[in-house]
Structure to design on (322 residues):
């Protein structure tokens, strides 16, 4: 996939550009269906499939929702879009100056002038430009004027579920990592670096890998059955998210006890895939009670993870766009 990280990097128009525009946070199954149609129509035209998105998220850039937790890091989003089989990704830096551009100027100067758009595929509620003036009606009028087709998709759903980034955020925040697979088509995951913690797990007989991550959306505090990817190998694990109330920690941590594993991985990059929630975080009366609870958690995770196959980025997304 060819990636343009600013409009200025597009030095010549993209041949037969069939495009969609949006934030695509989470790259859920609704986004995937849009990408599938963009890819299909580009192939029919003998052209290129194009996804146009913004960095940072406009809501964050404009300070409209400071507590918005993005589902994916930008690197993850690029990986997911590439895995969908898209030819070109245009990531536009969302600045105050860009936000002030009117919808017609955006279409004329960027979509038509720079990208050379032939077809635009969007959702029925999509709007862009200064004051969100670029709605479906205006886009259709501009399409007639500048010679590109506008296709508006109805709200996308499956099995009675409406796919939306808001729903994904809510489910992950509530700890429903099992249910969210129905919306995103893969197991929710967090990538990060293994760092030194307080080493309490080792003293308890359950040494943990503490993860430092750039991920904004973290599942609700509690214990989870997880798969841990180190290099190209998957291991079963039990993950605790929270501030370890038995010890009264102030900072939230993400700690993973990797089952049947004893290698030193400090400084290594790992990825944790959340399979199911085991229990809420709780305070225990003492160390003995805590050790017993951890042993029960580990046993529960072994049962939950038996015969589980991970659905991850390329395996899932590559298959559907074929």
């Amino acid at each position: 996939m060819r990636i343009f990280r600013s409009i200025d990097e597009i030095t010549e128009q993209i041949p037969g550009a069939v495009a969609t525009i949006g934030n695509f946070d989470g790259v859920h199954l609704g986004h995937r269906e849009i990408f599938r149609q963009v890819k299909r129509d580009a192939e029919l035209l003998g052209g290129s499939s194009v996804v146009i998105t913004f960095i940072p998220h406009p809501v964050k850039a404009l300070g409209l929702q400071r507590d918005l937790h993005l589902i994916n890091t930008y690197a993850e989003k690029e990986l997911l879009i590439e895995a969908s089989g898209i030819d070109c990704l245009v990531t536009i830096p969302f600045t105050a100056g860009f936000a002030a551009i009117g919808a017609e100027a955006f279409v004329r100067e960027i979509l038509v002038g720079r990208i050379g758009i032939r077809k635009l595929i969007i959702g029925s509620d999509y709007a862009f430009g200064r004051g969100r003036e670029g709605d479906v009606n205006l886009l259709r009028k501009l399409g007639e004027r500048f010679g590109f087709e506008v296709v508006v998709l109805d709200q996308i759903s499956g099995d009675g579920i409406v796919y939306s980034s808001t729903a994904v955020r809510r489910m992950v925040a509530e700890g429903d990592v099992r249910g969210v697979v129905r919306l995103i088509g893969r197991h929710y995951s967090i990538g990060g670096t293994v760092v030194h913690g307080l080493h309490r797990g080792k003293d308890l007989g359950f040494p943990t890998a503490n993860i430092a991550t750039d991920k904004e959306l973290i599942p609700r505090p509690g214990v989870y059955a997880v798969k841990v990817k180190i290099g190209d190998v998957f291991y079963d694990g039990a993950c605790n998210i929270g501030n370890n109330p038995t010890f009264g920690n102030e900072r939230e941590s993400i700690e993973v006890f990797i089952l049947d594993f004893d290698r030193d991985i400090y400084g290594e990059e790992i990825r944790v895939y959340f399979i199911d929630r085991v229990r809420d975080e709780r305070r225990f009366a003492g160390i003995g009670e805590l050790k017993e609870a951890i042993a029960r958690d580990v046993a529960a995770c072994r049962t939950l993870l038996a015969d589980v196959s991970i659905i991850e980025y390329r395996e899932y997304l590559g298959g559907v766009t074929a």
